[in-house]
Design goal:
This protein is α/β, with parallel strands linked by helices and 153 residues long. The protein has helices at 8-12, 55-61, 83-95, 108-122, 138-144; strands at residues 15-23, 31-37, 42-46, 63-66, 69-72, 75-76, 101-105, 131-136. The strands form two sheets. A five-stranded mixed sheet has the order 3-2-1-7-8. A three-stranded antiparallel sheet has the order 4-5-6. β2 and β3 form a beta hairpin. The chain is globular, with a radius of gyration of 17 Å.
């Protein structure tokens, strides 16, 4: 099906964007990556933290910082110079996704939404008006997927 900007369906059907944030730890003081995907496109930006990352962060994400370069699994990454610039780029990409956009994170209410909001406020950036709501996939996973092992969802 071809989607046209002028079609009735485009103005009525919501766009779901599945997103994830990487940070230096559970406090989310440093944004290290914003990644998102919709049906039609994707967005990913790494952010130079300008400081060493905790060892736990490197073990969990594979991200490390050395001599002003951000690395993923030992390979240098292209990165934005600031979280503000990365958030502004994310806003521009979100604006292209439509006017009825829903953001979906895994653990949105326990982490991602809180961290994202904190950084929007920190840099005095308006939260995109096109975002109708934020959804959290974690409760559904906990309800429908039984691990039965040492791992927790």
């Amino acid at each position: 099906m071809i989607k046209s900007k002028n079609s009735f369906m485009d103005t009525c059907e919501p766009t779901f964007i599945y997103a994830d944030l990487e940070t230096e730890g559970f406090k989310g003081e440093l944004l290290l990556q914003i990644a998102a995907v919709s049906d039609s496109s994707s967005f990913s930006v790494y952010i130079n933290p300008h400081q060493r990352l905790p060892l736990d962060c490197t073990k969990l994400t594979g991200l490390s910082f050395y001599q002003n370069i951000l690395y993923k699994d030992g390979k240098p990454l292209a990165s934005e110079n600031s979280a503000k610039t990365a958030l502004e780029s994310f806003n521009k990409w979100l604006a292209l996704q439509g006017d009825k956009t829903h953001l979906v994170f895994h653990n949105a209410f326990g982490f991602d939404a809180r961290v994202l909001t904190k950084h929007y406020l920190k840099f005095n950036i308006s939260f995109p008006a096109s975002i109708q709501s934020i959804h959290d996939s974690l409760p559904a996973f906990r309800k429908h997927i039984k691990t039965g092992g040492p791992f927790q969802i």
